Predict the structure.
Amino acid sequence: MNVPKRLKFTGIVSLALLPWVLACGADADPQTAQQNQTDDAQTVLCPAPDAGVPTLSDAQILMVLRTGNDGEIAQAQVAMQKAKSDQVRAFAEKMVEEHTQANQRLDALATQLGLTPEDSAVSVQLRAEAAQKLDILSKQTNAPFDLGYMDAQVAMHSGLLFWSDMVLMPQAQRTELKDELTAERDTAQAHLEEAFTIQKELASRQLVTPSQDIVPRR
C-alpha cells in the first residue's frame, strides 16, 4: 500500500493533544477513532466540545519545537544501540542528525529574535510523554524493539505535525518563526512517511499488524 504524500491524522496523536483535538470527528473514520493500546501507543478519544486550544507565545512555540526534537534525538540514540535492522539504525542516525540540526537552527533563531524558549503546559506534557516512551523502548530488545521504535516514530511525528498545523503555525507571530515552522513541518512529514514505510515492512516480516496504522481515508 502506497503512503500518500500528505497524510491526514485519523486519531493517532499524542495524549498531550487530547484536550485540543477539535476536529477529530471530521477527518477520522469512526472505526479508527479508537485504537488498540500497546505499550507505546495510547488510545485517543475525541474531547469534550468545549475543550479549548492552548494559547502559546513565540517563546513557548520555540520550546515546543525543541522539546519535540529532543525527544526524537533521545529515542534515536537508544535505537542506534539496540536496533537489529540496518534500516532502522540508518533511520535513527538520520533522526539524530536532522533533529540536531533543527535544534541548532532554533538556537540561532532564538538569538536572532531575542527570545528565550519558555515552557508551557504543552511542552511539559510532550516532554513527559517522550520520557515515558523512551523508558518503554529502553526495556525492549531484538525485533520487538525495532517495530516498537518505528511505532513510536509514527506516533511522535504524527503528533508533531498535528501541533504544527493546528496550534503552532496559526499562533506564531514572527515571520522568521513561521518560516522555521514550515521547514520543520516539511522535515517531519518526510520522516513520518519514511517511518511508516519501515514500520509496515517490519510488521510484514513479523506477520503482525502495526499498532499505528495511519493510512488516511479520503
About this structure: The domain at 57-206 is CATH 1.20.1260.10 (Ferritin).
